[in-house]
Amino acid sequence: MTHNLVHKVFGRNTSLRTVLIILFVVQICVAVGLTGYISFLNGQKAVNDLAGQLQSEVAARIQQHLRGYLEIPHLINQSHLNAVELNALDINDPVTLGRYFWKQLQDFASVSTLYFGNPQGGIVLAGRQVDGSFAIEETKDFVAGDYYIYATDETGNRTKIIRVAPPFDSRIRPWYKVALEAGKAAWSEVFFIYARENLGIAASLPVYDKNKQMQGVLTTQLVVSQIADFLQSLTIGRSGQAFIVERSGLIVASSTDEKPFISDAENNTPARLNAIDSQIPLIRFAEQHLLQQFGDLYSIKNNQQMSFELNGQRQYLQVSPLQDERGLDWLIVIAVPEADFMERINANTRTTILLSLAALCVAILIGIIISRWIIHPILSLTHAATQFAEGEWHQTLSITRADELGVLADSFNRMVQQLKESFTTLAEKNKEINKLNAELEQRVMERTAALNTKIEELVQTRNELLQSEKMASLGRLVAGFAHEINTPIGVAVGAASTLQEIAQMVTKMMQQEEVDEEELLSVLESVGEAADLTLSNLRRAVRLVSSFKRTAIDQSSDTSRLFNVKETIEDVNNSLHSKFKHTDITITINCLPTIVLYGLPGVLDQVLTNLMMNSLFHGFNDGKLGGQIIINVTFLEENKHLRLEYIDTGKGMEQSTVEKIFEPFFTTRRAHGGTGLGLYICYNLVTSQLHGSIICESQPNKGVRFIIEYSAQTSGVVH
Which of 264, 327, 398, 690 could disulfide-link 710, Cβ–Cβ 3.0 to 4.6 Å? Predict the structure, then answer.
């Protein structure tokens, strides 16, 4: 692949001078490019680390400030509660409460309002006005009703009523409800303060008497704009932004001038601003990325750092949860553009590119000079080599340099001289080689003829061995039949002799003048018994002869016919009965009597005969071991296949033996006369004549299992 690429780039006609110049240029470009790229990656990594550190430090500063800032209201509430519990402050005296709250406002500049609401719906409040003045507000008679706003003097005393507001009930206010539900210090939701046109948040603390009865709620209110002032005082890169949102996405405060609420011009009612609707692109896209990344803001459980694209520029983003046990649950989000950090790196990149271009020009100039210095002697060498290739042996080089090219020229001259001598020797050797080739061809022809003769002899020998094994199998069948038929014939002959003696006895009795009827009946009864015995044994002999006839014809004939599979297997079993009858081996045949096929029953006979004799000799140690032979036959209708499963429970075989079991002449009983052709014949019969498959499975002491499967016809007509 590399060779093809070089060939395509340079071409067959490209000069070496051009190649050298290109190589110089490519090396410089690769070296400078890799250096610049690695430098850029290192700078990028440094930027990522720096951005992450900056965001973490800013987030830590914001969290530290907010935790201190948001702790003050709860400390004030607790201070008020302590005063109530020590009877230093009477919560049932609205005048004293108002002056006390007014005094507290002088000491805590971050607090905008302090108030107390009681279970009757009344409220007493001291608040900081927009113009910097202070006012005390309360409901009439300290119960739910008309709401009065009083101006105050320099000591916190009420001076005059500024205005009367609509009726007020503290019990329905969010700050009262959240304290009542929590039963302890709690934060209200962020809400809009109409008088200040700003957002506020209230810290509430319920007050209980000694009997655990609710006495009211102490509340300290903060203006959220002070948080925004702090965020705006932070330096977050060159153009980074920080903002705080609730889990719902509503903005609490940000480091921008954008207000965290919007006004409805028609209804003149303010509404909280969602970060996704912000006019500040960095805030809006940061919120979109968080929603895409997590689905919703409630899924953010810990600090997360990530990045997103805005107008093709990468932006670094960090989000940190801010939570406390009083119900506060905000997210601090910090977004910093990558461009704030990349300006110096981009300048270095431009410098690197300029230096690379300068190095490239120098490399081209050096390449031209060096290539001319190298190419000149090479051109002389090329010209001499061309002349030499055309048969001009007198060519020599006159290069007197001491470098590698001078050594090459000297070697070339010596090579020319050696080649002259070699060509002369080669011509002589070619004559000898041609003569040897002619002799070798003659020998190869003679050896090939001899080898073909040997192959024909081996094929003939193999066929003779197979035929011999086949005849041996038939011989075992004949021997078994002779032994098996001997018994019923012998019994029939004995019974016939008895009949002859009884007939002679009857003749003598008939020659007597008087015949004893009882004795005659006894003799006739013996005649009947002898006749029955003779008849039954002759019938058995007829069945054996019929079975032998079918088996012998099938094994000696290659003609296809219709045959009953179960009868064929039983015929084989009957023919081998004499081999197994004196052993403890039981033979079980599981085959439906309705399976009738068209094919070669003799092949099936011979395969089963070899398998059963193999089990007797090898699996059951010449019948000395007991066990079972099970033959299961099924006909698979879906693919018209006959499946024969042959199992014996003998001593089994090692895996190494199983792998060689179907190889010709392989046997484990060579010393006992085994030829190693029995299972080889089975394999050939199944694969070549039945066009099926045979596999063997076995383990030591677990018997053997053969599975034979082949396509079978159910009639003599092929559809």
Answer: 690
Gap between the Cα atoms of 287 and 334, Å rounded: 11
Alpha-carbon distances, residue 546 vs 203, 301, 476, 481, 551 (angstroms): 113, 92, 17, 11, 9
**Is residue 262 a contact partner of residue 273, using CB atoms and an 8 Å limit?**
yes
The string of pLDDT tens digits covering residues 240-263 is 889 999 999 999 999 888 888 887
**How confident is the model over 471-522, as pLDDT tens digits?**
655 555 555 555 556 666 766 666 677 766 777 777 777 666 556 667 667 7
Contact 149, 135 (CB under 8 A): yes
Phi, psi for residue 652 in degrees, rounded to 5: 70, -170
User: Is 301 within 8 Å of 329 (Cβ atoms)?
Assistant: no
Rounded mean pLDDT of 524-546?
A: 63
Contacts 24+ apart (CB under 8 A), 187-193: 187/326, 187/327, 187/328, 190/224, 190/246, 190/250, 190/252, 190/272, 192/261, 192/270, 192/272, 193/112, 193/223
CB-CB contact of 708 with 646 (8 Å): yes
pLDDT tens-place string over residues 132-188: 789 999 999 999 999 999 999 988 899 999 889 889 999 999 899 999 999 999 998
50 compared with 328, residue with greater pLDDT: 328
Residue with tokens 């190494």: 656
Q: Are the CB atoms for 60 and 377 separated by under 8 Å? A: no
- Per-residue DSSP letters for 151-179? EE-TTS-EEEEEEEEEEE-GGGSHHHHHH
Structure tokens at 699: 């383990």
Q: Does the reported pTM lie above 0.70? A: no
Contact 59, 334 (CB under 8 A): yes
H or E segment to which residue 348 belongs: helix 339-389
